[in-house]
Amino acid sequence: MQRAQLMAYIAEQYGAAPDYPWQKHPDYAVFRHPNRKWFCVLLRVPGSKLGLVDGANVDIINLKAPPELIGALRSMPGIFPGWHMNKEHWISVLLDGGQNDATIFSLLADSYDLSR
């Protein structure tokens, strides 16, 4: 999945436009509920931050997930502990890292529901 595809899906499915709150990181996008709570954060980080051997920049999304599923989710390809987030409640999903679009959309829907 590509960044543009994900952003278009979020706009269509959830009516959320990206917010860019960090001047130092202009490509970090936060997607919020109308009450301003985050349900998705789109980031471009060095792969080394996730423990990847290749240190090239990668696109990830941080999503909220049920704490009881975090361990199982992190055992799946392309899913990591939430980068720069509470690791008991958030995961990071590599956009081009082993999960198909349907799985990413399902995890996004869970995050949307859990973060209201």
Set down the secondary structure blueprint.
Layout: H1 3-14, E1 29-32, E2 38-46, E3 57-64, H2 70-74, E4 79-81, E5 90-94, H3 101-114
Antiparallel strand pairs: 1-2, 2-3, 3-5, 4-5
In short:
With 116 residues, this protein is of the alpha+beta class. The protein has a single domain, classed as Alpha-Beta Complex (Aspartate Aminotransferase, domain 1).
Structure description:
The protein has one domain (3-114): Aspartate Aminotransferase, domain 1, CATH 3.90.1150. With 116 residues, the protein is of the alpha+beta class. It is built from three helices and five strands, in the order H-E-E-E-H-E-E-H. The radius of gyration is 13 Å and the shape is globular. Strand 4 (79-81) and strand 5 (90-94) form a beta hairpin. Pfam families: YjbR. This is MmcQ/YjbR family DNA-binding protein. Keywords: DNA-binding.
Distance between the termini: 25 Å
How many strand units? 5
- Residue stretches low in confidence (pLDDT < 50, at least 5 long) are none
Strand content: 25-35%
Mean pLDDT metric? 95
Report the CATH topology name.
Answer: Aspartate Aminotransferase, domain 1
Q: Describe the sheet with the most strands.
A: 5 strands, antiparallel
Number of helical stretches of at least 4 residues:
3
User: What is the N-to-C succession of helices and strands?
Assistant: HEEEHEEH
What keyword list fits this structure?
116 residues, alpha+beta, Aspartate Aminotransferase, domain 1, five-stranded antiparallel β-sheet, 5 strands, 27% helix, globular, YjbR
